[in-house]
Amino acid sequence: MTVLAVTEQRRGELRDPSFELITAGRQLADDLDSELHLAVIGGDVDGYADQLNREGVDAIHTVADGEEFNHDIYTQAVTAMADAHEPDAVLMANTVNGLDFAPAVAGQLDVPLVTDAVDFDASGTPEVTREQYGGKVETTVDIEADQFALTIRPAEWAKAEGTGDADIAAFDFDLDESAVRSTVTGFEEVGSGDVDISEADILVSVGRGIEEEDNLPLVEELADALGATLSSSRPIVDNGWLPKNRQVGQSGKVVTPDVYIAIGISGAVQHVAGMKGSDTIVAINTDPNAPIMDIADYAIVDDLFDVVPELIEEFGGEAS
Amino acid sequence: MKVLVTVKEVAEVDDEFAIDGLDVDESYLEYDLNEWDDYAVEEAVQLSEANDDVEVVTVTVGPERADETIRMALAKGADRALRVWDDAIAGAEFLDPGTKAQLLEAIVEEEEPDLVLTGVQSGDDAFGATGVALAERVGFEWAAVVNDLEHDVEANDSSVRRELEGGVEELTDVEGPAVLTIQTGINEPRYASLRGIRQAQRKPLDVQTLDDLGLEESVLETQVELTSMYEPESESDAVIWEGAADETAGELASFLRDSGVVEG
């Protein structure tokens, strides 16, 4: 009986979800009364395996094929490991790369897949807790199968600590090169530019609630009046209203200002991942149940178009 | 070439709502084209505008209500639409990504597209898995979370950027035929023109049943079962400033001054 957790690396470093997978994997292994095995694929696998040898890990299987993540290699290697070790569950991270190979692994193994778990209990019939409708509701799903695949939401489980005594071994695996039909040719950092929002002490951050591009000067004036820097949630950048270097969140910048003023931002999980480390979070939003309220320290439940002009006036600015 | 775009009609929930059984009560739901799919449709339409002889076909798994959403995709420039539905699918308890991938697999076999575009995820249940699951089933190559696409129509190869976390993009070459899952922001989805809306009424929209697709009802049997839905307990311990806008703005101003981060 095993749980197989598939770790992630990028450009020479293990990514945080790899260590969260150990914690979640140990929880799942305890529920199922099984061992926790890790898969480490690509790059400096021996170095990675040493770092991943933390408390609760029973075995680590390495596959050195590929320098960077490639879903064809990951899918083949994990499928081969699953054939060899017959895990009860294959655990992966609900990251961009996780989404790029987990469904293929589940398909190859012909097992059900549940994604983006925020909690689970597999002591009986495996039950997974997920969010739906942008976090407005939670659901539970039962998995009625002897073997299943699961992806966990990043940052929901703590990173594993401690030193382990796992058996580390290269997994005997022959890559079918002809089945590798995509090639990573490079990486690019985006969103640099004249402004670094991660350096700001105060961020005035604007979201979908601003409704129209023509309304943006309102929050720009507030930022000016406060001596703050303007940032935004994803939809504003998707719409092309602000450049990428203003985007806070999972695919943008992680920010930790003294004060983060979220204006018309509902607080999707991808956004929260980028700003929850702020010292003080103030939310201005019409919806008292918006997820942003869960992490706000102070909140004004009102229309931003009423509140922001008053605030500008407080600081001697002129609302347009 | 032929581009197949999978589109989903998703429900959005009002700020105030109630749950009835395993879903939000219908009266609190509003239906719309899934945001990610809107970008996928636009990307396909742009391909058809930039190249000769590109047909854009959309496919939806959904009830008759979804026709309105499908017509919007046609109005934006898709050439024709397929909708997969019948009483058996309507009666299915839960369409998980594996099940949807099987339904879409039958469409891919029938249509033989050169390229399939899907949204990264749907805004309602957000599994984010159907596109890659479909690719695996039909033996296509794939790329997930694509925010830039250059497609070579002659070779049927794609050069894409995948949007990774933390402001990093991965540049990847993908051999066709492929399934690409499209991220928001890749383009600027157009609004349907009045002319487009009129034309959409005359474009073909065919309904396909399991029987039409040569599938048995057993494809609907899933090992994943939805067992409960509830409102999460609020974790909020925020101090709520109450009152008229000038009062709440005043509270916030005092806080900012007192904490010393703002002068003036």
UniProtKB/TrEMBL annotation, chain A:
Q: Which Gene3D superfamilies match?
A: HUPs, TPP-binding domain
Q: Which residues cross the membrane?
A: none
Annotated Electron transfer flavoprotein alpha/beta-subunit N-terminal domain ranges read: 3-184
Q: Which InterPro entries match?
A: DHS-like_NAD/FAD-binding_dom, ETF_a/b_N, ETF_a/FixB, ETF_alpha_N, ETF_asu_C, Rossmann-like_a/b/a_fold
The answer, when asked if Acetylation is one of the entry's keywords, is no
Q: Molecular function terms in GO for this entry?
A: electron transfer activity; flavin adenine dinucleotide binding
An example of a Pfam family matching this protein is: ETF_alpha
Q: Biological process (GO) annotations?
A: fatty acid beta-oxidation using acyl-CoA dehydrogenase
Q: Does the keyword Cell membrane apply?
A: no
- Write out the entry's keywords from A to Z: Flavoprotein, Transport
Q: Which PANTHER family does the protein's record reference?
A: ELECTRON TRANSFER FLAVOPROTEIN ALPHA, ELECTRON TRANSFER FLAVOPROTEIN SUBUNIT ALPHA, MITOCHONDRIAL
Family to which this protein belongs: Belongs to the ETF alpha-subunit/FixB family.
Protein name, please? Electron transfer flavoprotein subunit alpha/FixB family protein
Q: Which organism is it from?
A: Halosegnis rubeus
TrEMBL record, chain B:
A Pfam family matched in the record:
ETF
**Molecular function per GO:** electron transfer activity
Instruction: Give UniProt keywords alphabetically.
Output: Electron transport, Transport
Q: Does the keyword Transport apply?
A: yes
Domain Electron transfer flavoprotein alpha/beta-subunit N-terminal: from-to ranges: 21-217
Q: Cross-referenced CDD domains, in alphabetical order? A: ETF_beta
Which InterPro entries does the record cross-reference, listed alphabetically?
ETF_a/b_N, ETF_b, ETF_beta_N, Rossmann-like_a/b/a_fold
Similarity field: Belongs to the ETF beta-subunit/FixA family.
Q: What is this protein called?
A: Electron transfer flavoprotein subunit beta/FixA family protein
Q: Which organism is it from?
A: Halosegnis rubeus
